[in-house]
């Protein structure tokens, strides 16, 4: 286990990367700190009448752009340091993919698997109330999204509670990752996994990098182990499988399964649903300790569960040649160093799982502008589109870029728009990171941080310091 905290780990990467920039020390300090963090305890009435007191947090790492943006996780392990670290990663992630938000993150310390639906609903609504009370949620202030242990149902309860508590406000844009029927956007559920797929596809397309690893370019035939078959893990695995890669291992909290000749993902999901466990999947080998399953042979390892899954203890035994950091912080800094020395290609979280926030940004744009992508071109003449966009700019005080204007005006199907917008974003960002990695002779994580710090610093510089 790492002896420094998660937030310290993030800041160590920041420090290493900032040495490759020419930014003033004072400004670097402003960027690095977490601007505000809210810790709250509140009661939850369980279905049997017992009262439990739960702890929850929301951290807003950087107010250089508003709203701040970041998921909410329900996990027994969550604490203030973790939430601040994840909020900081959100700041850098948004910058890397040019999403104009600051970073935030929220968490409730609870095992969501042990809650009934009614209990989850009460918990979510009360947490929303606490955030509203302190001004830690709102369409132009701080906009949550799903993360570990939460999904679109929680987002639906949040928007409903927010609307009830703020009857004068336009509530839809207070949270993203909502069901499509509640002003969500098609493609958001699978967006993070799709982004992971695009990022790894880009990494595998670089011939010189693949040659160094002794791999052929492309995804076809690559053997993949996935840890965590939740939102991010399942969807990334699905896209990899569709692209001709082979899922050879799946590791879940109850154990893992492995078959060197490949597993059929949909059959694994059906088996898990029917048996409440992935263990015993026909034709596969059971792995009792799923963490050990990460050490099995494969080309690409996709940790998509929680942080610190690979530490200095198990890193030396990892056989994968590429690590796709679908989860946030799955490697400790010691593990990262060991694996980079071994020549493993690590595609870092702050870039790789940015697909979720990218599509969340599209959803938020759709909500604040009250448009249905795919229809607007048919319903409005160009002139009324322009005046509507101007009205939004005046109301929100922000200027849309040419790209955003196109996105809001184009007469295209929502899924196509979202997917192509996501693909462009992931492809461009990988190109920028790869160039920085070459120019400064640093690994992809440090290269990603350099790009993020430079982009955030420009905004701090132009705004200056109040008063
Ligand atoms: N959901 C998003 O859009 C999103 C966006 C960016 C990053 N992330 C990150 O991706 C990671 C996963 O998030 P998610 O939304 O997919 O969560 P999720 O709750 O949908 O899925 C997590 C999965 O991991 C499994 N799991 C838990 N502990 C495990 C263990 N010890 N070993 C193996 N499997 C285990 C769970 O059973 C679950 O199936 C988190 O680090 C999160 O911060 C999520």
UniProtKB/TrEMBL annotation:
Pfam families linked to this entry: ELFV_dehydrog, ELFV_dehydrog_N
Domain Glutamate/phenylalanine/leucine/valine/L-tryptophan dehydrogenase C-terminal: 185-464
Keywords, sorted A to Z: NAD, Nucleotide-binding, Oxidoreductase
Listed SMART domains: ELFV_dehydrog (SM00839)
Residue sites binding substrate per the record: 69, 93, 360
Catalytic site: 105 (proton donor)
Species this chain originates from: Uabimicrobium amorphum
Gene3D superfamilies in the record: Leucine Dehydrogenase, chain A, domain 1 (3.40.50.10860), NAD(P)-binding Rossmann-like Domain (3.40.50.720)
Official protein name in the record: Glutamate dehydrogenase
Binding site for NAD(+): 192, 231
GO molecular function: glutamate dehydrogenase (NAD+) activity; nucleotide binding
Family listed: Belongs to the Glu/Leu/Phe/Val dehydrogenases family.
Keyword Nucleotide-binding: yes
Marked site: Important for catalysis: 147
Gene Ontology process terms (BP): L-glutamate catabolic process
């Amino acid at each position: 286990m790492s002896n420094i905290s998660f937030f310290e780990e993030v800041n160590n990467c920041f420090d290493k990367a900032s040495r490759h920039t020419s930014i003033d020390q004072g400004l670097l300090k402003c960027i690095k700190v977490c601007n505000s963090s809210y810790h709250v305890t509140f009661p939850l009435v369980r279905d049997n009448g017992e009262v439990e007191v739960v702890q929850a947090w929301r951290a807003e790492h950087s107010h250089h752009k508003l709203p701040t943006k970041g998921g909410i996780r329900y996990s027994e392990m969550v604490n203030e340091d973790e939430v601040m670290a994840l909020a900081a990663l959100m700041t850098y992630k948004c910058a890397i993919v040019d999403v104009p938000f600051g970073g935030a993150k929220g968490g409730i310390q609870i095992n969501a698997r042990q809650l009934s639906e009614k209990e989850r609903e009460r918990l979510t609504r009360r947490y929303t109330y606490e955030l509203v009370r302190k001004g830690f949620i709102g369409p132009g202030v701080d906009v949550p999204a799903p993360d570990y242990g939460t999904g679109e149902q929680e987002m639906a309860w949040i928007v409903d509670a927010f609307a009830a508590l703020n009857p004068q406000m336009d509530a839809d844009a207070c949270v993203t990752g909502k069901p499509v029927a509640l002003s969500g956007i098609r493609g958001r559920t699978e967006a993070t996994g799709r982004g992971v797929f695009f990022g790894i596809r880009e990494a595998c397309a670089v011939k010189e990098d693949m040659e160094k690893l002794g791999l052929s370019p492309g995804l076809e035939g690559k053997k993949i182990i996935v840890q965590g078959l939740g939102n991010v893990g399942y969807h990334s695995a699905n896209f990899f499988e569709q692209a001709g890669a082979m899922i050879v291992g799946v590791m879940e909290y109850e154990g893992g399964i492995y078959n060197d000749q490949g597993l059929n993902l949909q059959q694994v999901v059906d088996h898990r649903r029917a048996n409440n466990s992935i263990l015993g999947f026909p034709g596969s080998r059971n792995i009792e300790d799923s963490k050990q399953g990460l050490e099995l042979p494969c080309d690409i390892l996709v940790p998509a569960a929680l942080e610190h899954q690979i530490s200095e203890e198990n890193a030396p035994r990892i056989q994968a040649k590429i690590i796709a950091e679908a989860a946030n912080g799955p490697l400790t800094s010691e593990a990262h160093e060991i694996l980079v020395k071994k020549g493993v290609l690590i595609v870092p979280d702050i870039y790789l799982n940015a697909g979720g926030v990218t599509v969340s940004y599209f959803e938020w744009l759709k909500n604040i502008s009250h448009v249905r992508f795919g229809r607007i071109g048919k319903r409005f003449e160009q002139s009324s589109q322009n005046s509507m966009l101007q009205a939004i700019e005046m109301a929100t005080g922000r200027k849309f870029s040419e790209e955003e204007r196109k996105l809001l005006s184009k007469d295209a199907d929502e899924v196509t728009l979202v997917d192509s917008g996501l693909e462009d974003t992931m492809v461009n960002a990988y190109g920028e990171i790869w160039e920085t990695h070459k120019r400064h002779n640093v690994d992809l994580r440090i290269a990603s941080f350099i790009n993020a710090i430079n982009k955030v610093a420009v905004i701090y510089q132009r705004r200056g310091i109040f008063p």
